[in-house]
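Before the break, one more example. Copy the sequence into your notebook; we will annotate it together after we see the structure.
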Amino acid sequence: VSVAAFAAVAPSASAFNFGVAGPRAGGRSTLPSVQRAPSAAVSTSTALFSDPPPRRGGYVRQGEEITVKKRDPPYPKIGDVVRFFDVDGGKADGEVLVGKIVLIQPILQKEGAASVEDDGTNKWLVEIAELEDVGDGYYAEYPSRKRGSKRSLRKLEEVCPVSASFVRTEDAYRVPRDKNGRPASVYDGYKLIGYEGPAAVPINEEVVKTDMERYNELKFKLIKDAALAGLFVTVLVDLFKGLDDALTYFAGAIGGVGYLFFLSVKTDTVGSPGAKLGNNVSNLRFVLPALVLLGVAGRNLALGSLPGNAGLFSTVSTEQFACAMLGFLTYRIPLFLGQLSPVVGDSLTDMLPGSAGVAMQMARDAKNSGEEESNSLVDENLTPVLLVCGPPGTGKTSLVQRLVSDDDRFVEPAWMDRVRDPATFERLELRDEFLRRDPSGRYGLTKEGILNAAETAATEAIRGSPTDANGNEAARPPRAVVIDGNVDLARKLTALSGARLIGVWVGLDTMEKFETRIRSQIESGDVQIPPDGDADSVVRAKVKEIVQDIEYGVVSGVFEFTVLNDDFEDSVRQLKAAAEYCFK
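Here is what the structure looks like once it is written out:
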């Protein structure tokens, strides 16, 4: 509407001021604004200039006040990234540090202490693992050798949470900074009133039961192996040294088995109400060597070998003492052999050249996985797993991605995230149960992540689908898991129970093509050249690894199909044809 038209309607055009409003605080509007001049001579309708109803989040004119409800700070939890201070360098408020909460524990109050107002302070201590400032607002965990010395205890009211996000490519936490360049906190502190401590971690009874069964099996195996080792060496001593030394050695071996038994008593009662009693009973293991020597001395006394006024233990000869102590330490033999056997076995396999080492590795894997049970190969309950494997640089990753995008019957396995479930991730990591880890260390591939992926995808596919006339749900569509793997993962998958493995090997037809792709990766920076090497040495090392991988692919018997990835579209067609065997 023009100014003239508006003035013709209004009683007095001078009663209004027209102008252009500049940017206001909190907004960027530059629209024309209309302001009413303070004039009592102007009589207008209140309906025309009445204030509109307030809108949440809308513009509020100057002079009006709005009340914003402030959000309460959160309760603390283990794993939170926090900011705290440490007096250093003479600063008034100390050095600003960033860390993660690893433990929350109550502060014990003295009995009879004067009660104070319950504001939540002086009730909780937090243990913080300090994070290293690596620059640009990134904070990473210290190396393992330094983590023990980078722990701090603070009262809960002395720390405040920060809005940190984990950046996978940097393997560090990104922490926002304030205008002074210091880590900015989300709140001034945690909510203290009403805090009752960290929430209890849910316990998986099935895992506890399984762990207890494995512990009992290990305990029984150690005691049994110690007894058998003692008996075996006793027979050897009898053959080479005679019955007297054999009996002395056997007495020492029995003492060693008793030592393991009393040690297991202490282990069984750790963390239980009977821990103190179990600890006291287990201390009897320290007197077992003396009891063995006392038994040897008593036998000598019974045989009349006590000279003059000599003491009881003086009847034990040097040879008898050596036999008794060696017998007592026999329980360590199966322990050492059990620890060395995996290392020695892997080292022997690595030392064998070419196909012989691969064949030996396969024989050992077949023995461990029980592949001799041929009936398991046709079990309909097995999950079909399409393993696409080959040397690096053959384009197998692109083939797998194309297969998954073109055919929804194939799904990729689910990886466990360290950030989402740190407790379970750490437990599986300590047990070495991950089949594969990503380069950042955040994600891990487990047996369950492979076997459950197909079932989960099939369930999602029929969710919400209509039922038939009898109320039955639609049939589950077939699903198979496709894995983009390397040779190391292929070795582990051959021992995976519950899976039906269909192997596809992806390669190139000449070694020159491998070398060409390696050099292109070096030029693009995907493959780094070490400071003390050159491009040719890197190519030779990569070619050697590729030859070893090809040897495994040829003699392993895992791969029924081979795709030479010279033409991508033709390779995709061959991979799809091989993948159909997952449903046959």
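The radius of gyration is 37 Å. The first helix runs from residue 3 to 9. Try to locate both features in your own notes.
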